[in-house]
Amino acid sequence: MMELQDQQIGLVTDYLKKIGEYDNTYIIYLADNGPEATDITGENVSDLIRSWTHHHFDNSTENLGNANSSVSLGPEWASASTGGLSWFKAYTAEGGIRVPLIIKPAKDVLESEGTLESGTTTNELAQVKDLAATILDVANVNHPGTEYKGREVAPMSGQT
Q1: Of the four listed, 4, 20, 98, 145, which is most buried by Cβ atoms within 10 Å?
Q2: Which intervals hold domain Sulfatase N-terminal (predicted)?
Q3: Which of 73, 143, 131, 62 is nearest to 103 (CA)?
Q4: Which residues pair with 101 in a beta bridge?
C-alpha cells in the first residue's frame, strides 16, 4: 500500500513538474488516525452500533474485504498494529492520534525567511480542522462567516 501511494504521489509531482506548476503548488499529505478497535461481536459495543453495522454492511465470511464490508480488528489486533504506539482510535494516546502530516509549500514560501527547512520534523500539535483555515489563509481567501450563497455554513473553527 505504501509503495502504491508513493508511486501515485510521484505521478502527480512528475505531472506538475512537466506542466511547470510544481513550484506554484502546495502538496498536503496526511494519514488517518490509528486503527479501528471496535469489535461488533464483542461485549463492549452498544446494541445500536451492532444493529447499524448489521443493517448497512455484509460481513459474511465470503464478503470480507469488499467495499460493503466493515469488519474491524478488535482491541487486541488494533494494539498490535499501532507499531509500538500506545492505544488506538478513540483514545488521545499516540496510537490513536499520532499521524504524519507532510506539507510541500510553494517555492515562494520555501524561499521566505523564517520558513522551516526541507525535511524538518516537528512535534507541533495540529488538527485536521486547521488545514482549511491555513489553506484559505495561503490563498488569501476569507471564510464567508455563517452564510454562503444564501446557505448557512459552519463558522471556521480551525486556526492558521
Answers
A1: 98
A2: 5-141
A3: 131
A4: 30
> What does 64-121 look like in DSSP terms, one character per residue?
TTSTT-----HHHHHHHTTTT-S--TTSSSHHHH---EEEE--HHHHTSTTPPPTT--
**Residue entry with cell 523564517:** 114
**Which 8-state DSSP code applies to residue 45?**
S
Asked if residue 107 lies in contact with residue 115, where contact means CB atoms within 8 angstroms, the answer is no
For residue 33, give the nearest of 80, 90, 106, 102 by alpha carbon.
90
129 pLDDT higher than 70: yes
Which segment, 11-15, 29-33, 124-128, 141-145, is predicted with the most confidence on average? 11-15
User: Residue 29, SS3?
Assistant: strand
Give the span between the Cα atoms of 75 and 43, in whole angstroms: 12
Instruction: Report residue 130 as a C-alpha cell.
Output: 486547521
Q: Using CA atoms of 94, 99, 100, 105 in order, give the dihedral in degrees to the nearest 10.
A: -120
Give the pLDDT confidence score for residue 152 in this predicted structure. Answer: 93
Q: Are 38 and 73 in contact (CB under 8 A)?
A: no
Give the side-chain half-sphere CA count within 13 A for 122: 10
